[in-house]
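thread from #wetlab-drylab

HS: before we spend reagent money on co-crystallization trials with PBG, can we at least see a predicted complex? here's what I'd submit
DV: go for it
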Amino acid sequence: MRPTPRLSSQAPYPTTRFRRTRASAALRDLTQENRLSVKDLIWPIFVREGEGVEEPIPSMPGVNRLSVDRAVEAAKMAQGLGIPAICIFPYTGMEARTEDCALAWSPDNISNRAIRAIKAAVPELAIMTDIALDPYNINGHDGYVVGGEIVNDETVEALVKMAIAQADAGADILGPSDMMDGRIGAMRDALEAAGHRNVTILSYSAKYASAFYGPFRDAVGASAALAGGDKKTYQMNPGNSDEALRLVERDLSEGADMVMVKPGMPYLDMCRRVKDAFGVPTYAYQVSGEYAMIRGAGDNGWIDLEKAMMESLLAFKRAGCDGVLTYFAPAAARLLGGV
Ligand code: PBG
């Protein structure tokens, strides 16, 4: 149970008029409890083969798949806006996908090439990665499928190889998004053994089996591969809450430096519970479906896009998050004025 908040006793109206501190912009600023900063933002980007390519993603208006040269430009822009980190997701066509997912740990896959190129151009920008087999898997799952079952331990071995390849390429923050059991500890051991002592792990600890990932699966080419399948045997049941705390505790004990709740807005209660229970660096992922909803309604004139975007991001701070992964990162950074 959460402790009862310690609030000073309030004298009754009219001694206390809550509207006094709301009466002017200056007073509202002074009494604001939570604030969004550009330093809270992690910007997910999609990379693909080619040169000079910026390929729009229909279900995510305003978001493009970028070839490595364009991703470098995007990274420079992010750095210029004061955004501390980007997160790289690869788009792979069906022809690049195999059953053994060997491309996942190739030093020359599109993600690892993008990491190297961005590190060389903008070394101060932190680079986060995605660790899961779905971009490389013929069937679109985050783990190996053997006889219809997504097998855990064999998948963890592959994920560890992926983690090391990304760390070798220069990644600062590894993002295991696969929800297999035991992967954090296995990765941490392998990183230590390989001399990657300062590579951090931001674990997707409480990742729910969500319908809000739909546009992302289009973006990375996973929708067709998954062919209507779901990820319910490894991602969390949306009805569960206590289980998320057990997962976070487990990942921290295995060596995670930071933890994530995903999706974001429908799971703000989990952000608050995780932050209150552990007090560790806690992040939310405002996922593709959340972006598409806000952006789509904004583009149609049904809501004010900028205001709704900023309000949605501030909500993560209020819920206890230290930061948020969001496709709105550059737009929000511009409105925040860069500092
Ligand atoms: C896959 C992965 C997903 C997202 C990040 N990594 C989708 C999924 O689990 O199917 C979702 C991100 C988003 O929707 O913006 N490992």
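DV: The pocket of PBG is lined by residues 130, 132, 134, 142, 177, 213, 216-217, 231, 287-288 (CB under 6 Å).
HS: ok that's useful, forwarding to the group
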